[in-house]
């Protein structure tokens, strides 16, 4: 497998976590978003959107992080990223989509660049924008998570092992902390993050542990 991504990309981070959780080996190919390498023809042959990540396996090219995570779960079912119960599985998907579809896209690099270069937002306004949308999303997540964690007494959203939601949550927490969001104000989110932080799969996937973090 080859993973084409960027060390600080939330979507790439999600896939790194999932690959590590499943114990899958892969070659890492850095795509520097700040230098615009994602827009070059070489990368667009992998991902016509000019986005990361792209996962290549046996000549097959997969894009969009959530689709990649579900494909990995189907091809390598153990350990599972989604719970066995259809109801719990739907709830975990909803939590993951909250992050991947509603929080992260409106504070990713290309949106923030547009805010500043095309709409003239200042650095301060950019930070306010990010904090607003993360805060709004985390408020909802905390409420949803707390209601279920109190009942099931499990360290993770879907039970005793991390899965799809945690693959999405941890990169978002990393971004939140970069922009000064007080994640400690969300105790249930923080407890899940602490449980993840103790696991090698999450430690190895951290941005600062990627080859391109020093470039």
Any overview of this molecule?
Residues 1-80 form the GST N-terminal domain. Residues 85-215 form the GST C-terminal domain. Pfam families: GST_N_3. With 215 residues, the protein is of the alpha+beta class. It folds into 2 domains: 2-79, Glutaredoxin, CATH 3.40.30.10; 86-201, Up-down Bundle (Glutathione S-transferase Yfyf (Class Pi), Chain A, domain 2). It contains 9 helices and 4 strands, in the order βαβαββααααααα. Helix 1 links the parallel strand 1 and strand 2.
Brief overview:
This protein is of the alpha+beta class.
What name does CATH use for the topology of the largest domain? Glutathione S-transferase Yfyf (Class Pi), Chain A, domain 2
The neighbouring-strand order within the major sheet is 2-1-3-4
Helix content: 40-55%
Strand count: 4
Count of DSSP H/I helices: 9
Number of individual domains: 2
CATH class of the largest domain: Mainly Alpha
Major beta sheet summary: 4 strands, mixed
**SS content category:** alpha+beta
CATH architecture call of the largest domain: Up-down Bundle
Radius of gyration: 17 Å
> Stretches where pLDDT falls below 50 for ≥5 residues?
none
Mean pLDDT: 96
Give the amount of beta strand, in percent: 5-15%
Span from first to last CA?
23 Å
| SSE string, helices as H and strands as E | EHEHEEHHHHHHH
Shape: globular
